[in-house]
Amino acid sequence: MLSHLPEPEALILVAVLPNPRDLQIARTLGWYRLRANKAPKVINVDYIAFYLTAKFAAKKWQICHFAKVTGHELVTRQDLIRNEADHPRASDRYFKLQLGAIQMLDAPILATTWRRITFLYTTGAHFVSAATIKDLVVVGQERDLLWTALKERKAHFDAAETTTPQDQPIDMDLSLLLALQSLGRLDEATLASFTKPFND
């Protein structure tokens, strides 16, 4: 049983996790990226839940992982993935969402007929009781309350200054960090020193 399920009133962003590498990054380095020009209007949420695409094979088209959002900052893709400096979008801006530990639901939330998802907002109450993606949709008066809460979060986000890191992480390729961690050559404390999160 999970000990840290989202609170009923928690604001949750459901976002697409394109491939297993992105899940490994979220688990190991503790962040998830959103292209700034394609990001949803509100990223100042309490939790993020990940919708898995067809690239996850047996776990495709479902939500089974989620994490608490602990902060965010605006960076370039090159800042995030230093060993891909020649990528066509290397200079593009991304929101880097810092995450708590990745957790798994006891039972996945399945996509029965909805399989093309970009972003979806829901509440903790809907999330913990949902069996399918459709169950996450907030309707009626609850929807009005959800959008009011999202507008308030966006106003707070717009008023806040952009996060400025006080210390720069050591310049080491992401692929090397992940390889060292997978081989047991890099413990979590050391890994955290390379990728120190910056809170809002």
Explain what this protein looks like in three dimensions.
The protein has 200 residues and is of the alpha+beta class. The chain has a single domain (11-194), classed as Roll (Archaeosine Trna-guanine Transglycosylase, Chain: A, domain 4), CATH 2.30.130. Helices cover 28% and strands 26% of the residues. It contains 6 helices and 7 strands, in the order βαβββαβββαααα. It has helices spanning 20-29, 77-80, 124-129, 140-159, 174-182, 188-194; strands at 11-17, 31-35, 47-52, 62-76, 93-99, 103-110, 119-123. Strands 1, 2, 3, 4, 5, 6 and 7 form a 7-stranded mixed sheet that branches. The chain starts with 10 loop residues before the first strand and ends in a 6-residue tail after the last helix.
Number of helices: 6
The general outline is globular
Known CATH architecture: Roll
Instruction: Give the low-pLDDT segments.
Output: 161-172, 190-200
Rg result: 17 Å
- Average pLDDT works out at 81
Structural class computed from helices and strand pairing:
alpha+beta
Classify the helix fraction into a percent range: 25-40%
Q: How many structural domains are formed by the residues? A: 1
CATH topology type:
Archaeosine Trna-guanine Transglycosylase, Chain: A, domain 4
Measured by DSSP, the beta-strand proportion falls in 25-35%
**Could you describe the largest sheet, including whether it forms a barrel?**
7 strands, mixed
Spatial separation of the terminal alpha carbons: 30 Å
List keywords for this structure.
200 residues, seven-stranded mixed sheet, single chain, alpha+beta, Archaeosine Trna-guanine Transglycosylase, Chain: A, domain 4, disordered C terminus
